[in-house]
Amino acid sequence: MTTDSATDPGFLEISVLLRLDRQGPLTSKALAEIESVTPQAIGTTLSALEGRGLVARSRDPNDGRKVITTITRAGRGVLASREHAMNERTITAFRDGFDASERRQLAAVIPLLERFATEL
């Protein structure tokens, strides 16, 4: 995967995309609270994501005063691409960075790491 810092989503942008993908449409207020950032920071982030077509914003059908944000197909594509790249890096590191004995040791702790990750 090539990286272009001008177009690659930053940490908060990826966090917002993941949140929208997992939880569904949310208001900017809810996103700011969940991400523990200011409304201004979330507004800037959403504008950048919307400008690149990764999210779409529309009026809440239940309350026209609110705007809800949803992830787009392109946004899901960015997440899938990043996940694929991370998987490739993990496989390469696992294969090339450890001998067979070390790989077995690492494989043995995977269930513990998965359990740990669910607690985060």
In a nutshell, what does this entry contain?
The chain has helices at 11-23, 28-35, 39-51, 73-97, 100-119; strands spanning 26-27, 55-60, 63-71. The chain has 120 residues and is of the alpha+beta class.
Task: Describe this structure as you would to a colleague.
With 120 residues, the protein is α+β, with helices and mostly antiparallel strands. 66% of the residues lie in helices and 14% in strands. The chain contains 5 helices and 3 strands, in the order H-E-H-H-E-E-H-H. It has helices at residues 11-23, 28-35, 39-51, 73-97, 100-119, and strands spanning 26-27, 55-60, 63-71. It has a 3-stranded antiparallel sheet with strand order 1-3-2. Helix 2 crosses helix 3. The longest helix is centred in the last third of the chain and has 25 residues, at 73-97. It is elongated. The two termini are 28 Å apart. The model has no long low-confidence stretch (mean pLDDT 91).
